[in-house]
C-alpha cells in the first residue's frame, strides 16, 4: 500500500512539475508576456467568444511589445508583429516554419486521412497544393464567373423584397447566404440557388459560433488524450462536434453520389465532360484503386509522396469541406466590413459607385471587367488592412530549431502574427494608420509594404491563401451589382463602432444597413 502511495505521490509531483515548468517557459527564456494560470496558462483569455482571441493578442502587444510569448496548456506560442520577423517567418525561413499552428485535438496532419490543404504540412501539403492550384487559376475562375453572377442577382432579388418598406437589413446575414450559395454550387454539387432555404447554412454558421471551451482546452492541456477524445467526439456528436459532423457527412454524401453518377455514366457510354465543380476537379485526381472511404494510399511523411498526384476519396472530401467552411465565412466577413466602412465614409462610397458605373455599364458583369475596378481593389485591400481575416492562418509551427530575431525558437513552438497590430502600426503605415484611406493603395510604396510582410490578410510566401482570387472575384461581383442599384446608409440599428466577437475568426455581431435606391 505504501509503495502505491509513494508511486502516486511521485507521479503527481512529476506531472505538476512538468506543467509548472512549461507554464514559466517564456519567463525562463527572458521573453515577456502574460503568465496566465498554472496548467492552463493563458488559455482562459484566448478561448472566450465575447472577447475575440486576436483582439486580446492586440491588447497584449500594447502591454508587452512586438515580441512576446504565452502558453496555452502545453502549447508554447510566440507572438510577433514586426515586419521583418513576419517576412522571415513566412518567406526566408519558410523551411523552418512550414507547419501551421494546430491544436492537438485537430488531429495529426501526417496521419489523418482527411487532412486538408489548411492543416497538411511538408510533402503532403506540397502535393495537395499542386493538385488544388489549377482549381483557382484565372481560367477556372472565368468558368465559374456566371455561377457567382447568378447568386449575386438572386441576392439582389431578396434585398429588393426585404427593403421595399425602407427597413434596415442585416447585411452580414445576407452576405452569409450569398457566400454559402456560391461555395455550395462550386464546391459540393449544389445544382441551383438555395438562398434563404439552404439546410446546411445554420450548421456551418454554428461551427464559427460554437463557444464550447472544453474542446480546445482538452487538446492543449492534455495532448496525450487529444486523439482519444477526438475519436469519441467524432463518434458521439453530443461531445461537441455535432455541427462539423453534419457538414462532413453531407460532403461525404455529395462526393459518394458524384462517384456513383460518374460510374453510371461511364457504364452507359457517356463521356465525362468539363468539371462542373470542385468535386469533379478533385475526383479527376482521385486514385483509381481507392473505392471506399477511409483508405490512404501513401505514407505522406515520405518525400516520394510529392510525386503521387492522385487523391484518396477521403482527401477529396477533406479539400471540399475546408473550402466550403473557409470560403463561406471569410468572404462574408470581408463584404460585411467593406459595407460598414463604405456606409460610414459616403464620399468613398460615391467614388466607388462612379467607377462601377463606368466600368460595368451592362446588366451582366464579365470576368474581364472585374480587373478594371482599380478603386474597388483599393477599397477591399484597405478593408482587410483594418479588419484582417486571416489571423488564424497567419501562424506557424517551428519544424527545425532556429532563431527568429533575438529569440531562440525550439521545435514544436508555435509562432503567431498579431495581424491587427501589424496592419495599423504607425511605423509601417504612417500617422493615419487607423484611418480608412483606400487611396493609399495607389502608391507604389504600399505594395512594397505587402511584399516585405507588413500586410498579410491572405498570408505570405508559399502558403499564401489559395482562395484569394476567388474571394476577390465574389466580392467584386456582388458589390458591383449592389452599388449600381443602392447606396449603403447607417441607421438606428447600426452598431458604430461594430461590436466584435468570435474565436476562429473575428466577426461583427451584425451589420444593419439601409439600402437606399439610386433610381
TrEMBL record:
Listed transmembrane segments: none
UniProt xrefs under Gene3D superfamilies: Cytochrome P450 (1.10.630.10)
Keyword set, alphabetical order: Heme, Iron, Metal-binding, Monooxygenase, Oxidoreductase
CDD domains assigned: CYP3A-like
Binding site for heme: 465
Record's keyword annotation contains Ligase: no
Cofactor: heme
InterPro entries according to UniProt: Cyt_P450, Cyt_P450_CS, Cyt_P450_E_grp-I, Cyt_P450_sf, Insect_CytP450_Detox
GO function terms (MF aspect): heme binding; iron ion binding; monooxygenase activity; oxidoreductase activity, acting on paired donors, with incorporation or reduction of molecular oxygen
Domain of life from the UniProt record: Eukaryota
Family: Belongs to the cytochrome P450 family.
Designated name of the protein: Cytochrome P450
Native source species: Caenorhabditis nigoni
